[in-house]
From TrEMBL:
Gene3D superfamilies reported for this sequence: Winged helix-like DNA-binding domain superfamily/Winged helix DNA-binding domain (1.10.10.10)
Highest taxon above the source species: Bacteria
CDD domains: HTH_ARSR
MF annotations from Gene Ontology: DNA binding; DNA-binding transcription factor activity
Residue ranges constituting the HTH arsR-type domain according to the UniProt record: 6-100
InterPro entries with a match to the protein in the record: ArsR-like_HTH (IPR011991), HTH_ArsR_DNA-bd_dom (IPR001845), HTH_MetalResp_TranReg (IPR051081), WH-like_DNA-bd_sf (IPR036388), WH_DNA-bd_sf (IPR036390)
Keywords: DNA-binding, Transcription, Transcription regulation
Protein name in UniProt: Transcriptional regulator, ArsR family
SUPFAM superfamilies from the UniProt entry: Winged helix' DNA-binding domain
Keyword Transcription regulation: yes
Species for this entry: Streptococcus peroris ATCC 700780
Pfam families attached to this UniProt entry: HTH_20
Length: 100
């Protein structure tokens, strides 16, 4: 996702990013995806974090709209992965800090 897709200024996108990261569950989702180093299904993430399908869906949408993740649908399954471009541009070094 780029800023142009949502017609956001860089500062508007920064606000969306920080709001998305200001939640423990969403940080756990980011950490899971970072450590997995691949895409994971929404169901896998929900099961690992023990959150309801509706709660997981809300968190995935928030992360996707902030440009932090991308989602791919295959049949009935959705797969989520980190959008490294956003992290590299707006939060360089952030993902590496998740290992600490």
């Amino acid at each position: 996702m780029t800023m142009k897709q949502y017609n956001l200024s860089e500062d508007d996108l920064r606000v969306k990013i920080f709001k998305a990261l200001a939640d423990n569950v969403r940080l756990k989702i980011i950490r899971l995806l970072y450590r997995a180093n691949t895409e994971l299904s929404c169901g896998e993430i929900g099961d690992l974090l023990i959150i309801s399908k509706s709660a997981a869906s809300y968190h995935f949408k928030t992360l996707r709209e902030a440009g932090l993740t991308t989602t791919r649908k295959v049949g009935q399954n959705k797969f989520v992965k980190l959008n490294h471009e956003t992290f590299d541009t707006f939060l360089p070094g952030f993902l590496n800090s998740l290992d600490k």
